[in-house]
Each structure stands twice: as C-alpha cells, then as structure tokens.
Hints:
Two copies of one chain form a homodimer.
Chain A: E1 7-13, H1 17-28, E2 32-38, H2 42-50, E3 56-58, H3 61-65, E4 70-73, H4 80-87, E5 96-99, H5 105-111, E6 120-122, E7 124-127, E8 147-150, H6 158-170, E9 174-177, H7 180-207, H8 213-218, H9 224-230, H10 235-244, H11 246-268, H12 272-291
Parallel strand pairs in A: 1-2, 1-4, 2-3, 4-5, 5-6, 8-9
Antiparallel strand pairs in A: 7-8
Helix pairs in contact in A: 4-5, 7-9, 7-11
Amino acid sequence: MTRKPHFKRVALIGIGLINSSLARLIQRDKLADSVISFSRKDETLDEARSLNLSHEYTNDLRVAVHNADLIILGIPVGAISSVAKVIGPALKKGAIVTDVGSVKRSVIEDVSPYMPEGVHLVPGHPVAGTEHSGPSAGFPGLFEGRWCILTPEKDTDNVAIEIIHDFWIHAGMQVDIMDANHHDQVLAITSHLPHLIAYNIVGTAYDLEAVTEREVIKYAAGGFRDFTRIAASDPTMWRDVFLSNREAVLEMLGRFTEDLASLQRAIRWGDGDTLEELFIKTREIRRSLIDAKQV
Amino acid sequence: MTRKPHFKRVALIGIGLINSSLARLIQRDKLADSVISFSRKDETLDEARSLNLSHEYTNDLRVAVHNADLIILGIPVGAISSVAKVIGPALKKGAIVTDVGSVKRSVIEDVSPYMPEGVHLVPGHPVAGTEHSGPSAGFPGLFEGRWCILTPEKDTDNVAIEIIHDFWIHAGMQVDIMDANHHDQVLAITSHLPHLIAYNIVGTAYDLEAVTEREVIKYAAGGFRDFTRIAASDPTMWRDVFLSNREAVLEMLGRFTEDLASLQRAIRWGDGDTLEELFIKTREIRRSLIDAKQV
C-alpha cells in the first residue's frame, strides 16, 4: 500500500538531470509546500530559475537544507562527502536525507558520519537517465517504468524508508531494497562497465591513424553511434562513479576482458561455432529484456 | 546528376532485412518490371510471399538469376562464394551483380572468379540496419540519410558503377566510393568492433554468479540495454563478418584492448584526471555525430 507523499520543504542539492526531473514532478503533482534548489554554480541556478523549477534558489548549502524535511542529494558521488560535512549541523531533526547516486556503499560511508541523531539517511538509486545533463535536460516522465534501488542499513528508520519508497513509486518507478554492496556489483555490470566500454571504444576510434574522424562519423550507423550516445554522459559524474566503485568495476572488467580474449581467439582460429553460439545466447537476453519491458 | 534507375528484372538473393527493404522500395517506386526473390528456406519464401514482396519466388539459384539484369546478393558473406559459383554460369551478359555485405575484400575475392566475361560486379555496402532480421523486418525508409559505400575494382565498368550509385541515391542514401581494404578497416571500427564488444559484454553479464540474469534485466536501463540491442543482431551474419574481416577486426580489437588497459590502470590508481579527460573528448565526438545528422 503506497500513499502519495507530501513534504513541507524539499531541498534539491544539485539541479541536474535527475533533480530537475524531480523538481518538475514535485511541482506537477504538488508533493511539497515549498522546494529550494541548490547549486554551487550561479549559471546553473539561473538556468533553473528561468525554467521556474522551484520556489527558491541558493548557492549556500546551509540555507538550502534549513528547515527541509526532505533533502535529495543529486550531485556527483565524489562531491557527496564534503557536502554532507557542511549540511550535517544544519539539518532539522526528523529530516530524511536521500540521494540518487549510481554507487551506494561509498555514499553511505561518506554521508553517515555527518548525520546527526534523529536524521534519517535512506540511500537510493533511480536507475534511469539519458545522456543529457543540466537543469534543462530533466522531464517528469524520466522515471516511468524503471526500477529504483534503495540500500538502507539495518538500523535505518522504517518509516523513513517507507516514505522514500512511496516517493519513487509515485514517480512511476518500481522499488527494490537491496544491500549496498550487492547494488554496487549489480550496477557495475548493468551500468558502469557498459559506460566504461563505450567511453573506451569511442576514444579508440578517435585516436586511429588509418581511419579519419570524419569517416568514423559518416559510417557510425553501423553500430558505433549507439556507443557515442552512452559516451556522451556527464564526465564528472562518471569519473566519480568509476573511482567510487573501483573494486566492483575492476572485477567486472576482469571478467569482460577474459571473455573478450576467448572471443579474440575464436576469431583468430576461425572458430565460427563458438561465435555463433554466443550470438544466439545474447539474442535471447535481448528477448528477455523486451518481455520485461526494459528496452 | 543521378537518374531514377530502372531494371527489367531484379533478382534478390536472400530476402532478409536489407533485401526485403529493397523489395518494398523497388515496388513502391516502380524501379523494375519484375522482381524475383530467392531463399533456400521455404518458410522464408512463404513469409516473403505473404508480404507480397515480389512477383516471383524460388529456391533455385539458377532460376532466380535467369534473365535478370540486376542481381543483389543479400546473404551472409560466408555464403557468397558458393552462391557465386552456382549463379556464375547462369548470368546474362551485361548483368550487374552487387551485394550488401559488411565486408568487401572477401566478397570481391569470393565472387570475382565466378563472374563470366561481360558481367559487372559492383560490391556495395549500405551502412544501415536494425537488430531485426527476416522478410518482415524490412521497410523502405531503412536507408534514408545513411551512407552507402561502393568498392569497385580499377577495371570495373563505369556505367555499371553509375547505375548502382544512382540506385542507392534513389533509396535515400549518400554514396561514397572507396578501396575495399580501406572499407574493411573503417567498418572494423565503426561497426564490427562495436558489435563484438556488445556481444561480449552481454555474454559476460549472462555468465556471472554474483549477479542474477533477472537482476541484469531489471536494471538494464543504466546502459546495458543499448548493448543488448546490438547484441541481438543476426548471429550467422555476424559470425561471417568476424571470420571474413579477421585481420582488421583483430587489429582494432588490439587497439581497443590497449586503451582499455590504460583506463583500467587509471581506475586502479584513482587517476580521475585521465578518466575525465577521455570522457570530455568522447562527448565531443557525440556532438560531431549530431551535427552530421548521423544519430
């Protein structure tokens, strides 16, 4: 049973793709009496203001969280620790702090030490996004039909978890609760490694001597263009993801490289059966994805 | 200056995604007096027949090419040699043979020896496609705005080249003429390697113990799903591409692996600058693609 959530005051820390989508959603569905947007950059605040995304705008973290009952951290995970340190003393008793970062163990480690007694940290990750970033990139339908993963610790307040759960359900998501370490492993393969691979191949293509950049662009329709879309994702956000989820990413990368070496050998030896067998299997996974409405 | 091409009789050898799209286009724009479809599989012919894709249908290669002035080979490149051997003696003098394969040097080597005097081979590659295959997958707009590469040899008849050039222009493509070896290098990076990488990562995800297949599917929206689309492409066609373009694919794969090792090192050492620098560069490539209208 979920209820439509309602907050007195929401503080959006960072107003990029995810938080600006939430700003629109909160406004559309009247989920809060007031919303304040924080960004450290004046130009980002100006952009948010011109889009009328919230009631107030500030570049002062303590002003942003003052009196807020919900604080949503929508910033690169590498910046979360220093933000938590600043906002900690300014948080209202009973406030819920959540985030939308793609890595969860490091967020817990970076934020928990600064949370005062009576403030509830409910780490979250809405698995949704586009390659666009900034306040203008958001739209309220971003979360529709996708999954959100919450990774509360054992001692997290159940009511706070339920409120965040209902919030994402209301945004159109399905919600799973999972251990933070497991989240980081799952996302390492479904999101972090795909991004790393995409960044890498686009970089490789760029550096070739035998093939010009112009040629790469002209003939991108053969498959390459799908990688360029992913490789256009926010550079700072993704740098932080790889650094914060280092172990799981390196583990998955190791498996990937091992498998790739075996494919390489199959090509070198002209072993068509091994290739075709894999390609038939991967096609089935696509079908499962279509059946699960996750395409 | 291009003219609308017209043929007395077109033979479509294979009636999958590309050739069935061409069948629809030829019919729509009245580019031929008659069209005959060949497939070795009765069920594929039945499917083509039920879609009313051509005037005639046959599973006999010699019947298919009899009296045809244009023969389009739309079959996996690994099957082209044996098909060329059978159709060679049955080809009409003056006929043009072209193909749509993703590898060009091997096609020239496999087909040329069987072409009789007075028959013109114009190898071609429309760089367009989807992850779907079979007669039902085609649509006449598939080629719109994309590039087609022709790789004629030095002694190829100029009139024949011009006719095939005009044919693809009429299909909505821009046409480039290129050396076959260079084509195979360019496509190795813009198409073959992306497919190999996508097949590989989907296979890796499938084989993990720590993460279930169900989890991979649920959280695919984080980037993985784009890879599953590419990794759903026709298994036989792609097996043949890797085997036929072995050298160029292995060369590009070598470069990719080298670059990946350096990214891996950057993650291990926490070298965020190297990561961010690459990610900013790859984002620019995406912008070039958007400017070139190839997204």
